[in-house]
Amino acid sequence: MFLYLIRHADAGDADPTQWADDRQRPLSEDGAKKFRQAAKKFNRLVPSVDVVLSSSLVRAWQTAKILEEEAGWIAPKRFEALEGHGEGEVIKALKPYMKHERLALVGHEPTMSAMVSFLIADDTNRSIVEMKKGSVACVEIDSLQAGTGTLKWLLTVKVMREL
Length: 163
Prior knowledge:
Elements: E1 2-7, H1 29-42, E2 51-54, H2 58-71, E3 77-78, H3 87-94, E4 102-107, H4 111-121, E5 136-140, E6 150-155, H5 157-161
Parallel strand pairs: 1-4, 2-3, 2-4
Antiparallel strand pairs: 1-5, 5-6
Helix pairs in contact: 1-2
């Protein structure tokens, strides 16, 4: 299986005067624009996936919807395990989806980097990769066992826009 781990696009800084509940913080105008440009080009590398699982926090959900609209991916499904839970909870919740060949997760830091670190190095105590806002990591896995995945690539929004 190819597992695509996507960190939500840029949402600017948390600002409690605008969003008392940070779960409601949307993508910034510039973040959405750049990710739309990237998603259009990213479609050339990954034209489709079988399932898109996303956090329902506004900025992650907007990122998943951009992938649907611009990359032509299928509509996202809410995946509660990506809403502030650690990689252990995400791994448990992914088990029913292991039959798919291409699975995408759209979420937040530190979970996205921790997932990559867990899958490729069985290490979540230090950062193995840096998942910048809007970046996508492709990890090839046969199981959800720690340290058994292979990082195929990691792309930033800037690189995707240049594809």
